[in-house]
Predict the structure.
Amino acid sequence: MAKAKSRKSTASQRQAAQSQARASSASQRRPQSAPAQANQPQAQVRTSASQQQARNNQRKRVRSNWRPGVTVGVVLLIFAAIIGVFLFVSRQSGTPGPAPTPVSSGALQTVTHVDPTILAAVGTGGTTAPQALHGQPSLKGPTGKPEFFYFGAEYCPYCAAQRWAVVVALSRFGTFSHLNQSTSSSTDVYPDTPTFTFYQSSYSSPYIDFVSVESQDRQQNPLQMPTAEQQQIISTYDAPPYVSAQAQGSIPFIDIANQYLVSGPDYSPQVLQGLNWQEIANDLSNQDSSVAKGILGTANYLTAAICQATNQQPAQVCSANPIPQIEQSLGKAGVGAGGPQLGIVERPFEAIVRRPGRVVGVAGVVGVAV
């Protein structure tokens, strides 16, 4: 019995000793893990600090690469580009001038709706006929219709006179829009002749295409440039043998479908001197006035030439007096491809002739086939 108790006591002591040993071992392991856990935030702080330092170093490198001159150069390039675009647009749009003045509604209505009885009474008015062409390729406009090509300049007093007749004639075949009034140069012969300008105007017609080029403004600054095709027309037909050598390059120049030419004015601008737009328009109702004879006589000639080009369309215009009779007279003379004989028709006024760098007035002569 005493031995049994002794063995139990001894076993109990061994168990107690083992438990104490396990507790001691556990207590020794726990203090060892605490410092590792405590060191983790410090490691994170060191890592974060390193990353921040790296970012700061990168910013310093970027700042060290920046040069003030680079920014200034970029700004100057942008500024130069803006100026270049502005100059390009300004040149493309022509020389800027005063704001255009629309024609008064009263004057425009009178000029574009002339009484047919007055037109018939005036006839040709003693003006000069267009020159007929034969055997030339047909001139077609942008929409494929016969083309009425006009080349002139705003400063030109003879162009100023001719535009009145052009507006009267073309208004019988279509409609003008945005037609502005103007005057010829104040320093040329027949100064400040009242007129219109075809610059920035438009025209619509079911029968004919109207194409205009106003090459210079009132101060002889460049305004519109003819295209290569238009320049070819001018170089070919506003030169011998279609006009005399002395009249070569005259303006106004008109080509009606390569069937009829006008080089120089058909009546003198003198008849318009001292009058304003409305007074000129009012004189168109007086068949005996020099204004009506000059403008309407020229317009009747142009109308007859256009009717030849449009195959007598519209009939109500081309069959109205005096157009059929004028057409018959137009067919009697012409310049062909086979070597024309030229006659010289003297005119009692000068013609504007374009020369390189200047424009001069010369005695008005133009070659006409006989």
User: Anything to note?
Assistant: The mean pLDDT is 79. The radius of gyration is 46 Å. The first strand starts at residue 101 and ends at 102.
